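Moderator note: this is an archived Q&A kept for reference. The question asked for a predicted structure of one protein chain; the sequence and the answer are reproduced below.
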Amino acid sequence: MNNLLKYIFFIFLLLQFSTNISAETTSKWITKTKSENKLEMEKIEKIEKQSWIKKKVKKIFDDEEHNQKFMMKEESELIEKDMMGRTAAMARDTWKPEIFVVEKIEAKGDFILEGRVFDNTDPCKKIVLHADGEPQKINDNCSFKISLNSNNTNLVNLEAYDLQGNKSETKKVQIVSQFTPNEKYYALVIGNNNYKNLERLTAAVNDARKIAKILEDKYDFEVELLLDANSKKMENAIINLRNKVTMDDNLLIYYAGHGMRDNDAIPKQAYWIPIDGGKSLDGNWINTRTIESYISGIKAKHILLMVDSCYAGSFRGSDVDFPTDLEVNDTMWVKKMLNTRTRLLITSGTDQPVLDEVIDNHSWFAYLFLRFLDENVNYINATSMFERLKKKHGSFNQNPKLNRLENIGDKNGDFFFFAKN
């Protein structure tokens, strides 16, 4: 019994001791945990935060990759659609290439013709351009530059083709040569207003002054101007040209004033009237046949006689064959005309009275002549100028006339006015 009690007591003490040790150990562990827990928690939070960042970054990259894939897919689909559209357009393409270029260009010697081509479906590099059948280079911006020489050609034909064989309209470019003649140009310009025995005129003197000025200033003529001249001065001025003008020169004689006709003569005769001419035929009237004889003795290569008076069409002459626009712009034709003897007559009317002052103190004939000279920037030939003069007289009761004076030496040439460069 005693032994049993001793054993039970021993067990009790052992348990008590174990409890004390556990409590102490637990207390120490709790104390240690509390001190280190903060650090552990911080580590855990840091790890969790890093994990969250990694997940976030991964999501961003995943989203971007997704977007890129989507955009690539969308772009691929658009390219595919565009290619399909182009293929379909090419399959049904009937659009003709277009050529943009000037219709007329003035040049002297070597020059560059510039322009541009356009096609609705084909890029510039796929268009073929020909100039007179010769292939030409087209730049990336669809422009082209062609080297030409005005002495070798007066017309260029341009054509363009695309990949489907569609052909543009043929563009024709006229090449007009700029000439610098070495020949001399002379002019005798006569204007009579203040008649002693006949009705005074209004426009003749002003016409003569303005024509003389533009011939000197713009066309480099050596001009003799006679205003209100009597019979002796007029005849002497024409006769003196025989000693002044050579066979390589050019001469313009322009008369503005009264003109009369002798209806009793057979055949009828026409006259230029100086300011001292009488009301009826007298010794001061100058017969147009006399003027023809004076001019026939002048050696000039080209002579143009322009008469703005009544009954001016009584000169003897033949009709003129008018050149085409292509001929007028053809260098070879111009050179041929420059080397061919010429005697031309342009009158403001035929065998009838003509108008005096019409516009700006000018006769209509002189006004148009001055306008054509003023507008010209290169050269103008007499026969083409006459065609324009005649058309502009349609509303007036007078009919301008152009004749070749074959009886005094015309050989089918032409007279040219060259503007100064």
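Archived answer notes: The chain has a mean pLDDT of 82.
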